Amino acid sequence: MRLRTLGGLELSGSNFRKGAIKPLLLLAYLALEGPKPRRYLAELIWPEAADPMNSLKVVLHKLRGLGAISADEERAWTALECDAVELRNCLRSGKLRGAIELYQGAFLEGAEGDSGEELEDWIYTTREALAHEVRLALLELAEREAALGQFVAAAEKAEAAYRLPGAAPLEPEELPRFYPLLLAGNNPWAETIKREAQELGVELALSGEAARGRLRQSFVGRERELEKLSTLEPGEWAWVRGGAATGKTALLRRLERQGGLYLPARQGLPYATLEPLLGSVEGGPTELLRRLAGISGFWLFDGWHRMDAESRELLTRLRGLGSRARVVIASRDRPPLEVHCLLELGLLSEEELKHYPGAFEATGGVPALVGAFLREEPLEEALDTRLDALSEAAREIYAALTLLETPNLAVARKSVGLGPAETAQALEELLSAGLVEPSGAVRAKGVALRWLTGRPALEAYLILALAPLLSDLEAFPLYQRARNLTDGSELPGMHRAYLAWAGELLKRGFPQRAAEVLAELSPTPELSLMRSRALERAGQYKEALEVLSSLPDSPEVLALKGALLWRLGKPEEARNAAQQALEGNSRARAEALNTLGHLAFSEGRFEGASTDFRRAAALWRTLGEHERWIGALSNLAIAQSELGESTEEAFAEVLHAARDNPGVRSRVLLNLGNVHERRGNFDAAAKSYIEASAQALEAGALDISARAWNNLGVVFHKQGRAQEAENAYSEALALARQAGELRLTGMALGNLAELTQDLDVLEEAIHLLERSGHTQVAEGYKARLDELKLSGSGHASRST
């Protein structure tokens, strides 16, 4: 069965009635939002019902019969395939075309009329969010095609993005991104965009050629422009447009070598710019115009906007009259007269800069920065000079965009208090200068950040303006920068942002980094609890317990305290804390049951351990904690294997549950290897460890891969395969160092030292473990060091 939510609402592959909207809305909500409490769902879907819980009960019974939903006494959830979920996954993995194919229409189209206010708000919000993401995907593909010169196809995608069902009307700052794409492909919707912009006070003045030039910003050198200008016929005029320091002068100077007459703009006296060409400027404008019309040659005017007014007027009249010369004019402005060829100077390409290592990476191809890089001048000073030529509004928008991890023109505009028209003009300046992409992404961002760091007052002002406009995760990097600017002062919203960031680090498997981040702020109960949890997952149990010591014994604190006390070898204290935590909520109970399961296992009560682990797994699943659920299933598998169940059968369920998550699967395979190893099945253990390492590397989990190699080394060590053991320990050591895992580094180094009978290196490994706070592990290696000194033999340690 598959739930279709895009362009309608239907449970395909079932005989479920299409008109039964509320059950399908329930499935849609759970598919996108994950497990939810039953009471919340009842009041959300049936707010007007006399007995919402009974309505939910009836629907759950029907949907369970179809196998479409799962529920327990507290929560409900679904594992149905859903097109909206697949669309989000495609977008997150960069499969833009796949996401666009999945989008068959607006989310839950037509279903909102049968909903309460809260559910209806969710439908509209989700509809617009999904449509916005698809719109951005279409624009990204359109810009890629335009960069390759496929302007018609690019315009079709831009049109599809503009007319996308379910999408909100465009914001004023979004219009300038659509217009060049449509204009470059001669799409009729360009005029619609232009009219909308005018009504909002945003001017979109661009020719098709200019749009194509802007979109095709990367050239292989300047050969393309050089060739176009070199082949102008007598009487033809060309206009080279680009911001300051985009290479206009350099291009004209190259043309000068081909016989052109370079004429820089001059001010002061009338006709100052034309004087080198005319010689004498006496005789009045009519006489001078007649003389100009009779001169042939290749004229190269540099800086129309800086030229004296009389020379500009005479050249304008000459263009209308016609001339025998080939004329090239460079300017930052659009041409005020008709020209045969308009060139927009873009960035220098990576190909052009390939002979200058590091140039493209450092500068993003911005010509002004490239020149400074090649002259070994500070790039921040070159950028500052470049920005001085722009308006104050452009500089403010540029600085705001520099601070944003993901470009967001609407947020940048609001943070500096500009109107739509001012923002569009500022963006136009930045685009012409090649400093930003059409999306608002800042080029050469490293240089931009260093430039902004040199202006602490501006940076602090913008951080305070931007942070409240962003989500907690998006705001965290700004708050972290703000601490360096405000002497460590803690701002409103900072704690929420730090908690969100640390929580995300924990989800992604970086507990040590999460603990370090949380240590930056003054402790609060919520911060301390999360920091203790991060330290526990990083293996720093003593430190985690110390952080908890200042907190009152709530069930959640007791649950974590129980896990830590068990890890520190204090079973009775751990049992007491865990049993008290059972009085808490589902999360505290799950943690406590896991600890009680470990205690039962260590005492040889495998039946009791299995019961505790099974209950913990059920709770983690209802909470939507996928990885903790699989962790409990893995513990259950170990306990079941101790009860006599075959290893393959015991681990079948958890391996199946982890099949689509290589990071989680790698940890399960580590446990499977440990069971095989304890039973003396060394070949099977080695096979599990090798597969665990491969899965971990696929997921980018270097620490898990290091553990697998360390354990593989132990297996080889036990089998007397010394060279293979040494290779495995060396690989574990390299991966542990790369991952920054000091505990694993110390263990791999210690095992390698034992294998090679190097007592000095073993002492260094012990010192490393003690210095990094892993004193318990260090004690084990001290005992082995004493054994080695006495007998010359030892036993390596597995990673758990």
Question: Could you give the topology of this structure?
Answer:
Layout (H helix, E strand, L loop, with lengths): L1 E3 L5 E3 L8 H13 L2 E2 H8 L6 H15 L3 E2 L3 E3 L3 E2 H10 L3 H7 L14 H31 L3 H12 L12 H10 L4 H11 L8 H8 L7 H8 L6 E5 L6 H9 L4 E4 L10 H4 L5 H10 L4 E5 L6 H13 L4 E6 L9 E4 L14 H5 L3 H8 L4 H10 L3 H12 L5 H8 L3 H13 L12 H9 L2 H11 L5 H14 L8 H14 L3 H8 L6 H13 L3 H8 L6 H13 L3 H11 L4 H17 L3 H17 L3 H17 L4 H11 L4 H17 L3 H18 L2 H17 L3 H18 L2 H15 L2 H13 L3 H17 L9
Parallel strand pairs: 1-6, 7-10, 7-11, 8-9, 9-10
Antiparallel strand pairs: 1-2, 3-5, 4-5
According to CATH, the fold-level topology of the domain at 658-800 is Serine Threonine Protein Phosphatase 5, Tetratricopeptide repeat
What is the top-level CATH class of the domain at 658-800?
A: Mainly Alpha
CATH superfamily of the domain at 658-800: Tetratricopeptide repeat domain
Radius of gyration: 34 Å
Strand arrangement across the biggest beta sheet: 8-9-10-7-11
- The share of residues in helices is 55-70%
Number of helices: 41
Which CATH architecture of the domain at 658-800 is right? Alpha Horseshoe
Q: Indicate the mean pLDDT.
A: 88
Q: Which class best fits the helix and strand makeup?
A: mainly alpha
Q: What shape does the CA trace take? A: globular
Distance linking N and C termini? 40 Å
Beta strand %:
under 5%
Unreliable runs: none
Give the strand tally.
11
Q: Main sheet, how many strands, which sense, barrel? A: 5 strands, parallel
